[in-house]
Each structure stands twice: as structure tokens, then as C-alpha cells.
Write a structure and sequence with these properties.
Length: 327
């Protein structure tokens, strides 16, 4: 006799599987990001897990076309999307992750973002292209938590913009008026006409959550731009850590901008340090919420359940065949 999935529980089971796959893919990508030297085995594992999510999503959509994901699961998928493109930037592969074309867990499949890869890999994106994804992820997290952006986050965002600018100048050899302003264009726009709920609207709302945030970010951005625009013959007196990125971007009189920025990536604006800060931010986002149920069962500890109840649940769910003294 053929066995069919119970329609009463199929969605719950499929959702648990999807959440498990997304979570394990994120963890694997973060482990890869924290690797100092390239590790082919870790790269293969990380990209394989992403492909598993990619393969499961269409099946999930076909089985549950009207599914509405929880805010936490939506955030987790968005976290996976950004983590993937960020890791791809430094560890490119030929794998084509269709999840990049899915900003949410739905049947919609918008056009994929245009790519411009410094490693000549058509699947990777420049830092300038990943920056909006970083901001969108941050905006979703802030909205979900009901929080506002902090000065620490602003410094991370400013560092991200500085790295994106450096890459454009050093790697792409783009050096033109307005390039720096484009890198630091993000902020609150009172006249924003973006549709409510859209990514652009969420990002704008994040920057304008309260007057103090608007004022602080404007100050950071203004100090960055003013520091760069002042002739290099003027001596700066450092009065605020918020100004350090752009002051460092200003080249000495005897050095070209391209050479100066290239030297910074090996020193004060180390790419390694930048990756570490982004990795810490992503790890913090992942750990801010309870792990998926299947992950908790693997660990033998389920939030809200005793060890005995967890053991019984593992038996019912097939993790173990019978209850034993150990987990």
C-alpha cells in the first residue's frame, strides 16, 4: 500500500525541512567566510548546501502555493541570500543560485540582479551591488525587532561603503567625480516615494526611524564627504572615530588615489578586518533567534522542553528508533 503524506502535517514538516536547510547553509557559509585561507572542501560543502535550498524551494512552492512564511523564516532566507552573495564575492564558484532571484519565500521570481564581478565570475557581485542587500537585510531585522540603527551599525555601514568605493577605484579603475558621493548616498529621504513595504521604503524608514538616528547618520556621512573634499594640504585633527574612514581615504600629496587606496586595503582598511566585522554582524543576526526545530533536536535541546520531553519528541520524529537513557 502506498504511503502518502498527511495533508494535516505536510506543511509543518516541509516548513521544518526548509528552515533546517536554510540554517545549515548559512552556518556553512559563515564558516567559510571565517576561513583565512581558501578551503576547497568547505567551499564545496557550503555551495552544495545552498544548492540544496535552491532545489527544495521550487518543490516547496509547488506544494504550498499560498504559503505565508513567518517573519523569522523570511529573515533567515534573506540572511542566506546576502551571506551567499557576500561569500561569493570572496570565494566565487560556478554555481548559479536561483535563490538570488527570490527576495522572499513566494512563487514570485523577479529578474536576477545584474552582476559585475571582480573575479570575472558571472555569478558574483561587486561590493557596490551587495551593499543594497546588506541595507535591506538590516532594515528587515530592525523592523522585526522594533529597534533602531545603532552607532556601531552605522560604523559598519560606513566601512562597507568605504570598501565598496575602494573596490571601484582600485579594482575597476573607476575614478570620476561623484563616485564617492554615490557610495555614501544612503540615508533618510523625507520625500521618498517608494511603495510602502518595498525594500527601498524599508531602508529609508530604517534611516529615518527617529530624529537622533537621522541626525547621527547625516553627521557621519557629512564628515566623511567633507573630509575627502578638503585639499590634502590641510592637516586634520582627529576629533571623532566616526570620521576615520574618509580621512583615511584622502591620499597624501605624493601618492595617486588608486595607489593610496590599494595600500589601505592591506593596512588601515584591511579587507580581512572588514570581512570579520561583517561575519560578526551576520552571526549575531543568526543567533538572535531560536534555531530551527530540527537543529534543536539534533543538539538534544529544544527550547521550552525538558530533556525527557525532547527525547520523546526525537523518538516520534524518527531521530532515534527508541527512547534510551542518552540523547
Amino acid at each position: 500500500m502506498d504511503r502518502k503524506a498527511d495533508p494535516e502535517t505536510q506543511l509543518e514538516v516541509d516548513e521544518a525541512i526548509l528552515d533546517y536547510l536554510i540554517y545549515t547553509a548559512i552556518v556553512s557559509l559563515l564558516e567559510l567566510l571565517d576561513t583565512i585561507d581558501r578551503n576547497p572542501q568547505k567551499e564545496h560543502t557550503a555551495h552544495l548546501l545552498v544548492q540544496m535550498v535552491d532545489a527544495f524551494l521550487p518543490v516547496f512552492h509547488s506544494l504550498h502555493p499560498n504559503y505565508k512564511a513567518s517573519p523569522e523564516l523570511k529573515l533567515r532566507l534573506r540572511l542566506l541570500q546576502f551571506t551567499y552573495v557576500f561569500v561569493q564575492h570572496y570565494y566565487p564558484s560556478s554555481a548559479n543560485a536561483a535563490l538570488l532571484r527570490r527576495p522572499s519565500i513566494s512563487t514570485e521570481d523577479p529578474k536576477p540582479p545584474k552582476s559585475a564581478n571582480p573575479h570575472e565570475d558571472p555569478q558574483a557581485m561587486s561590493l557596490s551591488q551587495t551593499l543594497p542587500l546588506f541595507l535591506a537585510l538590516s532594515a528587515v531585522q530592525n523592523e522585526l525587532q522594533g529597534s533602531t540603527i545603532t552607532e556601531i551599525w552605522m560604523m559598519l555601514a560606513a566601512g562597507y561603503m568605504a570598501q565598496a568605493y575602494i573596490e571601484q577605484v582600485v579594482l575597476y579603475q573607476k575614478e570620476r567625480p561623484g563616485l564617492l558621493e554615490e557610495a555614501f548616498q544612503w540615508g533618510y529621504d523625507a520625500g521618498c516615494r517608494a511603495e510602502q513595504g518595498s525594500e527601498q521604503w524599508q531602508i529609508n524608514d530604517m534611516f529615518g526611524a527617529d530624529e537622533s538616528s537621522v541626525s547621527l547618520w547625516k553627521s557621519i556621512r557629512r564628515e566623511h564627504l567633507e573630509a575627502v573634499r578638503v585639499p590634502s594640504s590641510i592637516i586634520f585633527i582627529e576629533t571623532s572615530a566616526k570620521r576615520r574612514y574618509i580621512i583615511q581615504l584622502r591620499p597624501p600629496d605624493h601618492m595617486s588615489l588608486t595607489d593610496h587606496l590599494a595600500s589601505l586595503t592591506a593596512g588601515a582598511l584591511s579587507v580581512v578586518a572588514f570581512k570579520e566585522k561583517v561575519s560578526e554582524f551576520l552571526t549575531g543576526l543568526l543567533s538572535a533567534y531560536a534555531a530551527p526545530l530540527l537543529i534543536q533536536l539534533e543538539r538534544g535541546e529544544v527550547v521550552g522542553l525538558s530533556r525527557k520531553a525532547t527525547k520523546a519528541l526525537k523518538v516520534r520524529s524518527g531521530f532515534i528508533h527508541q527512547a534510551t537513557d542518552g540523547i
